[in-house]
Amino acid sequence: QVQLVESGGGLEQTGDSLRLSCAASGRAFSGYTMAWFRQAPGKEREFAAGIVWPSGSTYYANSVKGRFTISRDTAKNTVYLQMNRLKPEDTAVYYCAAKGGLRIGIQTDEYDYWGQGTQVTVSS
């Protein structure tokens, strides 16, 4: 059974940087795609960034492109989300997700496994 455990959330100020981590376990991820989603209060969960595990190919939502970077460490089975130039609108619970296959999906129902989430709050 795949387990995803996020860490690294916190309270930041506008313009700060923060790195989230997602430790993955339970199987080999060579045929998987990983992603970060986020959910702000009162809003639906939305796609932020995705990465194809074996190739490292990435895709970003327009709202984070140029500020966020997704990466993975295959030796540590960990996915990262480096968030720079944070804005108050980045405030959300951030979730790590995994799906079989090598196509980055942007819909929540495409993903089979989810972490518990980590809170990121950006003050103005």
Describe this structure as you would to a colleague.
The protein is an all-beta fold and 124 residues long. Strands 2, 4, 5, 6, 9, 10 and 11 form a 7-stranded mixed beta sheet that branches. Strands 1-3-8-7 form a 4-stranded antiparallel beta sheet, with no helix packed on it. It is globular, with a radius of gyration of 13 Å.
How are the SSEs placed, and which strands pair?
Blueprint: E1 3-7, E2 10-13, E3 18-25, E4 32-39, E5 46-52, E6 58-60, E7 68-73, E8 78-83, E9 92-100, E10 113-114, E11 118-123
Parallel strand pairs: 2-11
Antiparallel strand pairs: 1-3, 3-8, 4-5, 4-9, 5-6, 7-8, 9-10, 9-11
Structural class: mainly beta
Q: What is the H/E order?
A: EEEEEEEEEEE
Largest sheet: 7 strands, mixed
Rounded to an integer, what's the Rg over CA atoms?
13 Å
The residue ranges in which pLDDT falls below 50 over 5 or more consecutive positions are: none
Mean pLDDT: 97
Distance between the termini: 40 Å
Q: Give the count of helical stretches.
A: 0
Helix content: under 10%
- According to DSSP, the number of beta strands is 11
Strand content: over 45%
**Which outline best applies?**
globular
Write a short abstract of this structure.
The chain is an all-beta fold and 124 residues long.
What keywords describe this structure?
single chain; 124 residues; mainly beta; 7-stranded mixed beta sheet; 4-stranded antiparallel beta sheet
